[in-house]
Amino acid sequence: MFSYSDVFLSLFLYRYLRLVVNVLAFCRLRPVPLAENPKLTSQDVTVVIPSLEGDGPELWDSIRSILATKPFEVILVTIDAHLERAKLMVKSMATPKIRVLSVAHPNKRRQMVRAIPEVRTDITIFADDDVTWPAKLLPWMLAPLENEAYGGVGTNQRLRRADGPTFRQRVWGYLGALYLERRNFDCAACMYMDGGLPCLSGRTVAYRTKILSDDAFIYGFTHEEWLGQYQLNADDDNFITRWLVSHGQKIWFQYHKEAEVQTTLEDNPRFLKQCLRWKQPWSTYAVHLTTLSHWALLWDCLLVYCCFESTKCWSPRSSALALAALLSWMFISKFIKLVGHYIRYPVDFLLLPVSILFGYLHGLIKVYAMFTLNVTAWGSREGADANDAYRMIRVSQTEREQAAEHRAVEIYTQ
Fold it and tell me: Could you tell me if 273 and 235 are in contact, meaning their C-beta atoms sit under 8 angstroms apart?
């Protein structure tokens, strides 16, 4: 029979071992430096921007920041219904570096596949239509790709803070900023430990074009199945990350100020819907396994209870000190990943209790997400779900047999 001390020690190590290791790993990760004589330049890059609206101030600002980095070309892919307005926007920008394409339905995978055959450069970068690039982004993204072993490079991300937000908007924006801060931290730590990642985020990510244009990739990307019954057309960046790893391509997370893109997140309750949508050895433990078992409120309550029970035989003063030490450690663990954010925005430290409460709420979001895995709705973007059924299409028996044959051929030719 295990004692309360044994249970406490086991829970504490499981809960906090990864935090201690990740803090050390995060501090040790260094970006791939710029090559003295790089083989790749901005003229080897085509930027593909899948966009629903095909117009608007955010997209306009994104394209301007991207063009400032001097890529070879920008390909904007919208939907047929918005093609003309996208062309009008591009015409008003008066540059020959932008082409506009379209697909019938709003679906990011199909929009990406529409652009891939049009790319004429060695490197393809996919970018969301609400990102802002720093001026020196491309050299830093291309630096890891100087090594032929690397097939994909991701960027770190920060929230673009709103101008003159209301208090509610500030709170929701704060939670969004911390989400990105945690993600940067976890990606950097896992990259140092074993080269693994949750995924290369599609907000801004670079790939070798020859990987994307391979027929086997295109087929797999457009015929991924869910539960053996549905063709899945959501979750593009996770698929590509899995493809790279399973096909022997290294990936890299370029954690550097010049490889930091700014993006927007919902600054209202629709942020919760984004949280739902978002749902290598160390990486498996530090990211995926703990995603399923990391219920903050439950763990914290268990730790406090076991600490109390295991120290009951101590003197009252010693027992109180042990409990105070545990609570102090738990408090520090709530913000240690977020120190960088609080250094940049010290006033946000006043909102730390909001972050802690949301961390407890997030466990409930995970439970809800677990029981709604078949829901592919965007949920937080107007017009994005008009053709939601297209994201998960029921696959016929004939199509399943054809997919199985295609996978067998791919395995045989590898």
Answer: no
List CB contacts of 198: < 8 A, sequence separation 6 or more. Answer: 183, 186, 187, 190, 283, 287, 288
Nearest alpha-carbon partner for 188 in 23, 313, 348:
23
What is the rounded radius of gyration, in angstroms, for the C-alpha atoms of the chain?
23
Q: pLDDT tens digit string along 86-126?
A: 999 999 999 999 999 999 988 899 999 999 999 999 999 99
Q: Quote the CA–CA distance of 320 and 337 in Å, as a whole number.
A: 27
User: How many Å apart are CA 223 and CA 369, to the nearest integer?
Assistant: 23
Task: Note the pTM of the prediction, 2 decimals.
Answer: 0.87
Confidence of residue 283 (pLDDT cuts 50, 70, 90): very low
Let me know how many helices (H) and strands (E) the chain has, helices first.
17, 11
- What does the pLDDT look like over 168-213, one tens digit per residue? 999 999 999 999 999 999 999 999 999 988 889 999 999 999 999 9
Yes or no: say if 376 and 392 are a contact pair by the CB < 8 Å rule: yes
pLDDT at 197: 86
- Quote the CA–CA distance of 60 and 54 in Å, as a whole number: 9
The DSSP code sequence of 33-74 is PPPSS-S--GGGEEEEEE-SSS-SHHHHHHHHHHHTT--SEE
Alpha-carbon distance of 248 to 255, in angstroms, equals 22
Per-residue DSSP letters for 304-317? HHHHHHHTTTS-HH
Q: How many Å from the N-terminal Cα to the C-terminal Cα in the chain?
A: 51
Comparing 35-39, 68-72, 122-126, 359-363, the range with the smallest average pLDDT is 359-363
- CB atoms inside a 10 Å sphere around CB 394: 9
For 34, 40, 62, 317, the CA distances from 37, given in Å and listed in that order, are 9, 9, 29, 65
Element (H, E) at 77: strand 73-79
